[in-house]
Specification:
about 170 residues, mainly alpha, disordered N terminus
Length: about 170
Amino acid sequence: MDRSSESQRPTTTGDKVTSSDIDIDLIVASIRSDIRGRRGQWAYQSVHSPGFEDVTCPEPSDGDDYGPLLHSHLRQVNQPYTQFLFGLDLNPSWMDTLPVVGRLWTSLRRYLHQVSLHYVNKLIRPMLQFNRHLAIALNLMTRQSQKQETEITRLKQRLDELEVRLTDVEEEA
């Protein structure tokens, strides 16, 4: 550090900083630069994770070997199914009609049903999230497969052209 920057350092008296030469933007930029440097050391890579709406169901392509069956299933998987959370649904019981015990029985059933629904919904949320990620992965893999299929078809055509040219060259020789 040079002498000019040392003279600009704030002096402290107790807990107070007495210099007004503090540049907060410079400090924040320095911290951000340090963080970027550390991330580079850790080989940190920021990966874009597409949301469910970013990756839609691919359409069947021409020459698709999978046929309509795969795309029918993909469309079903991509249907929004976030409303699977269950609500209170109690069927009447013969004990509900009893004078005093009926009300107590109904209250107890309702409470136990709500407790069980709480845990069922708690289990369903991660499963719905997993299914959503699985649908995205299937969509991406299907798109990649379609691209590869197109590339393979193009390469087969190119190979056929080269074989024809090779045959022509051999016949001329």
